Amino acid sequence: MIKIEFFSKDKELILKITNGVLIIWLLGALIFTGNNLVDLMLKEPEMTYEEYETTYCINKMEKDDDDYCERMFESFKLNDKREITSQKRNLYTSIINVVIVSAGLGLINRKKK
């Protein structure tokens, strides 16, 4: 089993401070990654056209524009796809952040032979 001592007595003060900052950063990155994962996995159910029409279009229908609601629904669906893409990008970025900070902690605290 690998034993890493972040704050041992033989470490210099700057390494102890760096370890403290990186550990706090790693905890924040893990929380952010978990939050992004939950947001991506537990998204709201998709709205059908009928639900969208009853929610947003009944009172706003214009007399001259019959396909107003259909265009708005397509825009709504496109925005939903963009949001999912953005959530995936945020998840990948936060995972990379965790990997980089973990690698930094590992490199700083590796045992010298």
Name some characteristics of this structure.
113 residues, mainly alpha, 3 helices, 70% helix, 0% strand
Walkthrough of the structure:
With 113 residues, the protein is mostly helical. It has one domain (9-109). 70% of the residues lie in helices and 0% in strands. Helix 1 packs antiparallel against helix 3 (68-108) and helix 2 (49-57) crosses helix 3.
Summarize this, please?
Helices cover 70% and strands 0% of the residues.
One letter per element, helices H and strands E, the order comes to HHH
Query: Would you tell me the overall average pLDDT?
Result: 87
The major β-sheet equals: none
Span between termini: 17 Å
Task: Let me know the number of strands.
Answer: 0
Percent helix, as a range, is: 55-70%
Unreliably modeled segments = none
Report the radius of gyration as a whole number of Å. Answer: 24 Å
Number of domains: 1
Give the overall silhouette.
rod-shaped
Please report the number of helical segments.
Answer: 3
Structural class: mainly alpha
Residue fraction in strands:
under 5%
Q: Topology of this protein?
A:
Blueprint: H1 13-41, H2 49-57, H3 68-108
Helix pairs in contact: 1-3, 2-3
